[in-house]
Write a structure and sequence with these properties.
Helix content is about 90%, strand content about 0%. The protein contains one helix and no strands.
Length: about 60
């Protein structure tokens, strides 16, 4: 009976450690996702600015 309880305690402890590692990994992945989303927004903003500048330049070319 004691050995069964010790085995169960060990399994519960392993499970708790596994859950904590998953929580930590999830937190890290959420931070990475937020950073990538910010980078994506920044690049989209730069792209939109470049598009606007290009359109302005194209509008300045006289038609002949």
């Amino acid at each position: 009976m004691d050995s069964e309880l010790k085995s169960l305690e060990q399994k519960i402890s392993q499970f708790a450690g596994f859950c904590q590692r998953l929580r930590d990994e999830n937190h890290s992945l959420r931070q990475q996702l937020a950073a990538e989303q910010n980078q994506n927004k920044h690049l989209n903003d730069k792209l939109a600015g470049a598009k606007d500048r290009l359109e302005n330049l194209l509008n300045q070319i006289p038609e002949s």
